[in-house]
Amino acid sequence: MKRFIAFVYRFDLTLHIIAGLTLALMMVVTFTDVVIRIFGRPIIGTMEIISFCGAVVIGFAIPYASWMKVHVFVDLLTAKVTPRSQVILKAFTKTIGFLFFLFVSYNFVRYGLTLMKTGEVSPSFKIPYYPITFGLAVSCFLESLTLLCDLLKLAKGENNG
Protein backbone atom coordinates (compact mmCIF):
# COMPACT_ATOMS: atom_id res chain seq x y z
CA MET A 1 0.00 0.00 0.00
CA LYS A 2 2.86 2.39 0.78
CA ARG A 3 4.29 1.82 -2.72
CA PHE A 4 0.91 2.58 -4.28
CA ILE A 5 0.56 5.78 -2.25
CA ALA A 6 4.14 6.80 -3.13
CA PHE A 7 3.46 6.12 -6.82
CA VAL A 8 0.32 8.28 -6.78
CA TYR A 9 2.19 11.06 -5.00
CA ARG A 10 5.00 11.03 -7.58
CA PHE A 11 2.49 11.05 -10.42
CA ASP A 12 0.60 13.96 -8.76
CA LEU A 13 3.86 15.86 -8.40
CA THR A 14 4.81 15.21 -12.03
CA LEU A 15 1.52 16.62 -13.29
CA HIS A 16 1.94 19.56 -10.91
CA ILE A 17 5.35 20.34 -12.40
CA ILE A 18 3.91 20.12 -15.93
CA ALA A 19 1.12 22.49 -14.86
CA GLY A 20 3.67 24.95 -13.48
CA LEU A 21 5.79 24.86 -16.62
CA THR A 22 2.68 25.31 -18.75
CA LEU A 23 1.65 28.32 -16.66
CA ALA A 24 5.11 29.81 -17.24
CA LEU A 25 4.65 29.22 -20.99
CA MET A 26 1.29 31.00 -20.84
CA MET A 27 2.93 34.00 -19.20
CA VAL A 28 5.71 34.11 -21.80
CA VAL A 29 3.28 33.84 -24.72
CA THR A 30 0.99 36.53 -23.28
CA PHE A 31 3.87 38.89 -22.50
CA THR A 32 5.44 38.36 -25.92
CA ASP A 33 2.12 38.91 -27.67
CA VAL A 34 1.51 42.17 -25.77
CA VAL A 35 5.01 43.48 -26.51
CA ILE A 36 5.10 42.64 -30.22
CA ARG A 37 1.52 43.82 -30.66
CA ILE A 38 2.91 47.32 -30.08
CA PHE A 39 4.81 46.87 -33.36
CA GLY A 40 1.68 45.66 -35.14
CA ARG A 41 2.74 41.99 -35.25
CA PRO A 42 0.54 40.03 -32.81
CA ILE A 43 1.05 36.30 -32.43
CA ILE A 44 -1.52 34.47 -34.51
CA GLY A 45 -3.51 32.00 -32.40
CA THR A 46 -2.59 33.39 -28.99
CA MET A 47 -6.07 32.70 -27.65
CA GLU A 48 -5.81 29.13 -28.91
CA ILE A 49 -2.47 28.56 -27.19
CA ILE A 50 -3.69 30.14 -23.95
CA SER A 51 -6.90 28.08 -24.02
CA PHE A 52 -5.03 24.79 -24.47
CA CYS A 53 -2.51 25.73 -21.81
CA GLY A 54 -5.25 26.84 -19.41
CA ALA A 55 -6.92 23.45 -19.67
CA VAL A 56 -3.61 21.75 -18.90
CA VAL A 57 -2.78 24.07 -15.99
CA ILE A 58 -6.15 23.69 -14.28
CA GLY A 59 -6.58 19.99 -14.98
CA PHE A 60 -3.06 18.94 -14.07
CA ALA A 61 -2.94 21.04 -10.88
CA ILE A 62 -6.01 19.41 -9.30
CA PRO A 63 -4.51 16.09 -8.09
CA TYR A 64 -1.49 17.62 -6.36
CA ALA A 65 -3.62 20.39 -4.82
CA SER A 66 -5.89 17.70 -3.46
CA TRP A 67 -2.92 15.73 -2.14
CA MET A 68 -1.51 18.77 -0.37
CA LYS A 69 -4.95 19.81 0.97
CA VAL A 70 -4.67 23.33 -0.48
CA HIS A 71 -8.23 23.35 -1.79
CA VAL A 72 -11.00 25.29 -0.09
CA PHE A 73 -12.31 23.42 2.93
CA VAL A 74 -15.38 24.58 4.82
CA ASP A 75 -15.65 22.86 8.17
CA LEU A 76 -18.83 24.54 9.32
CA LEU A 77 -20.68 21.22 9.62
CA THR A 78 -17.77 18.96 10.54
CA ALA A 79 -16.65 21.14 13.45
CA LYS A 80 -19.96 20.51 15.21
CA VAL A 81 -20.02 16.70 15.03
CA THR A 82 -18.16 14.02 17.00
CA PRO A 83 -14.72 12.85 15.83
CA ARG A 84 -16.19 9.51 14.73
CA SER A 85 -18.83 11.32 12.68
CA GLN A 86 -16.09 13.48 11.16
CA VAL A 87 -14.26 10.35 9.97
CA ILE A 88 -17.48 8.91 8.53
CA LEU A 89 -18.25 12.21 6.78
CA LYS A 90 -14.71 12.41 5.36
CA ALA A 91 -14.92 8.83 4.14
CA PHE A 92 -18.29 9.50 2.53
CA THR A 93 -17.19 12.70 0.75
CA LYS A 94 -13.94 11.14 -0.44
CA THR A 95 -15.84 8.11 -1.77
CA ILE A 96 -18.26 10.39 -3.62
CA GLY A 97 -15.30 12.38 -4.99
CA PHE A 98 -13.54 9.17 -6.03
CA LEU A 99 -16.60 7.98 -7.94
CA PHE A 100 -17.20 11.43 -9.46
CA PHE A 101 -13.67 11.77 -10.84
CA LEU A 102 -13.76 8.21 -12.19
CA PHE A 103 -16.99 9.14 -13.99
CA VAL A 104 -15.49 12.37 -15.35
CA SER A 105 -12.33 10.56 -16.47
CA TYR A 106 -14.36 7.91 -18.27
CA ASN A 107 -16.39 10.57 -20.06
CA PHE A 108 -13.26 12.51 -21.06
CA VAL A 109 -11.95 9.31 -22.67
CA ARG A 110 -15.24 8.82 -24.51
CA TYR A 111 -15.21 12.45 -25.66
CA GLY A 112 -11.56 12.18 -26.73
CA LEU A 113 -12.34 9.10 -28.81
CA THR A 114 -15.18 11.01 -30.47
CA LEU A 115 -12.84 13.92 -31.21
CA MET A 116 -10.33 11.46 -32.67
CA LYS A 117 -12.96 9.95 -34.97
CA THR A 118 -14.27 13.31 -36.15
CA GLY A 119 -10.78 14.76 -36.57
CA GLU A 120 -11.74 18.04 -34.94
CA VAL A 121 -8.84 20.49 -34.78
CA SER A 122 -8.24 24.03 -33.56
CA PRO A 123 -8.89 26.84 -36.06
CA SER A 124 -5.47 28.55 -36.27
CA PHE A 125 -2.84 25.87 -35.78
CA LYS A 126 -4.95 22.83 -36.69
CA ILE A 127 -3.95 21.14 -33.42
CA PRO A 128 -6.19 18.16 -32.61
CA TYR A 129 -8.27 18.55 -29.46
CA TYR A 130 -8.17 14.92 -28.36
CA PRO A 131 -4.68 14.91 -26.73
CA ILE A 132 -5.81 17.62 -24.30
CA THR A 133 -8.99 15.67 -23.62
CA PHE A 134 -7.02 12.50 -22.90
CA GLY A 135 -4.64 14.47 -20.67
CA LEU A 136 -7.59 15.73 -18.66
CA ALA A 137 -8.90 12.14 -18.46
CA VAL A 138 -5.56 11.05 -16.97
CA SER A 139 -5.65 13.96 -14.54
CA CYS A 140 -9.19 13.13 -13.38
CA PHE A 141 -8.27 9.47 -13.03
CA LEU A 142 -5.24 10.47 -10.97
CA GLU A 143 -7.47 12.65 -8.80
CA SER A 144 -9.66 9.63 -8.15
CA LEU A 145 -6.54 7.67 -7.14
CA THR A 146 -5.51 10.54 -4.88
CA LEU A 147 -8.89 10.40 -3.16
CA LEU A 148 -8.51 6.61 -2.89
CA CYS A 149 -5.17 7.16 -1.15
CA ASP A 150 -6.91 9.54 1.25
CA LEU A 151 -9.48 6.82 1.94
CA LEU A 152 -6.73 4.27 2.58
CA LYS A 153 -4.97 6.65 4.97
CA LEU A 154 -8.27 7.33 6.69
CA ALA A 155 -8.86 3.58 7.09
CA LYS A 156 -5.39 3.27 8.65
CA GLY A 157 -6.35 5.90 11.20
CA GLU A 158 -4.51 8.83 9.71
CA ASN A 159 -7.13 11.54 10.16
CA ASN A 160 -6.23 13.81 7.26
CA GLY A 161 -8.19 16.74 5.82
Describe the structure.
The protein has 161 residues and is an all-alpha fold. The protein has one domain. Helix content is 75%, strand content 0%. Helix 1 packs antiparallel against helix 2, helix 1 runs antiparallel to helix 4 and helix 3 packs antiparallel against helix 4. The longest helix is centred in the first third of the chain and has 36 residues. The two termini are 20 Å apart.
Summarize the structure.
It contains four helices and no strands.
Salient structural properties:
4 helices; mainly alpha; single chain; about 160 residues; about 75% helix
- The counted number of beta strands is 0
Mean pLDDT, all residues: 92
* Quaternary: single chain
Global outline: elongated
- Strand percent estimate: under 5%
Q: What is the first-to-last residue Cα distance?
A: 20 Å
Rg from Cα: 19 Å
The low-confidence parts are none
Order of secondary-structure elements: HHHH
Query: Percentage of helical residues?
Result: over 70%
Biggest sheet details: none
Structural class: mainly alpha
Number of domains: 1
In DSSP terms (H or I, runs of 4 or more residues), the helix count works out at 4
Give the topology, please.
Blueprint: H1 2-37, H2 46-68, H3 83-118, H4 130-155
